Amino acid sequence: MVDVDPHRKHPVDERLPPARMFTSGLQHVAAMYAGVVAPPMIVGPAVGLDTEETAFLMGASLFTAGIATLLQTLGFWRIGARLPFVNGVSFAGVTPMIAIGKDRGADGLPVIFGAILVASVLGFLLTPYFSKLVRFFPPVVTGTVITLIGVSLLPVAFNWSQGGNSAAGDYGSIRNIGMAALTLLIVLVLRKLLRGFLQQIAILIGLVIGTVIAVPMGMTGFDAIKDAGLVGFPAPFHFGAPQFEIAAIISMCLVMLVCMTESTADMLALGRIVGRPADERTIEGGLRADTLGSAISPLFNGFMCSAFAQNIGLVAMTKVRSRFVVAAGGGILVLLGLCPVLASVIALVPLPVLGGAGIVLFGSVAASGIQTLATAALEKGENGLIVAAAVGIGLIPIAAPDFYHAFPKDLLVVLDSGISTGCVVAIALNLAFNHLGAKGGSSDGERAEAEPVTLARTVT
């Protein structure tokens, strides 16, 4: 670690040359694209939408993800973390939204949008209180949660590597997995051989090379470009004005709490990675941007927005810490939402290619968590036990997806998220062992965990 020159602009606030800004921003978009369009691809058919309407839902999700990302990176007033923080459609809401829209057809979407709107407004009002929980997120907690974020995302990369659709005949085929492995190898070789800026965009170059190789193999086609329109604005209330039902609102409020918990953990992770630890005010601003973005989203037919952890891995890997790079990515997302043709170009990247790159991206997040845990003095007090229990419980939804099948469906919103359960366990155990009953100020565990706060003046 080196000291930051107080007279030099922090890397987070640096503006890169336009060409580097665009290509680095595009790399962020490439990393998150599949995650943004996946929820509408799942929810649309589940509520009875045809292909054209589902495509409209995908465009709306890209557009609103771009707005939410701009709110986070650029910000205004006390809104926005002002970190290289990417926002997009949350996977946490997929199952509850399908449950709300089931048997209603397209008429279920206004109910979903109404529930998201109310939950987002309530979340916005709660942010000043929720952000005060930051003192309960020392390295033993944040390291555990960051590790779980990376590990929880890896199954997504594995699914993409197999083809993404378990019902397809070629799911898990040698060709799909071979293409993922080849892309992974290409990215690793590029990272080894390239230098400077080219090394920083190695994943983007790897995705392009992988896609080019996939074309003659019949793994991608250009039909999506032929059928896409040049301009398509996500007209407000396309599916009807929001409707408000108590049960749906309660369900989405639970999802909002899950998203706020995960976003808090992600901001803490990103703050440590970029050398600007997220304090209470940063988290409050970030959560305001999350909830405001989520409140705006249903007006344009989009879903709840939250942090995208895979882009944290991209920041850690490329070492490009400028928030304006991610803001450029947010601008690109807005354009993709307004121009279906451009969106379809990025959609050319086959999922196996994306999966191969995703293994590196998501693995980088887990590695960052392990690096944070190295500063948590696990030999002191019960810190090792805290990590063991939290990681073990957080891995349950990954290792045994049906473990909680007998529990009420509303609880599954939390229990099926290893990140959320691991975070809750880590916070509770840290509170029990390092806060409650501590005498004479701080316990050994607390003193050991207080030391990394000095990272506010250093960068790795």
Q: What can you see in these coordinates?
A:
By secondary structure, the chain is an all-alpha fold. The chain contains 20 helices and four strands. The protein has helices at 18-46, 51-73, 94-101, 108-130, 139-162, 174-193, 196-200, 202-214, 223-227, 246-274, 280-296, 309-318, 323-338, 340-346, 351-373, 383-394, 396-399, 409-415, 418-434, 444-450, and strands spanning 2-3, 87-89, 305-307, 458-459. The strands form two sheets. Strands 1-4 form a two-stranded antiparallel ribbon. A two-stranded antiparallel ribbon has the order 2-3. It is globular. The termini are close together. Mean pLDDT is 81; it is low at 440-460.
Distance between the termini: 4 Å
Question: How would you describe the shape?
Answer: globular
Helix content: 55-70%
Radius of gyration from the alpha-carbon trace, in angstroms: 21 Å
What structural class should be given to the helix and strand makeup? mainly alpha
Number of helices: 20
Name the average pLDDT.
81
- Ranges where pLDDT stays below 50 over 5 or more residues in a row are 440-460
> What is the string of SSEs from the N terminus onward?
EHHEHHHHHHHHHEHHHHHHHHHE
- Enumerate the strands of the largest sheet in spatial order, edge to edge or round the barrel: 1-4
Number of strands: 4
Main sheet properties: 2 strands, antiparallel
β-strand amount: under 5%
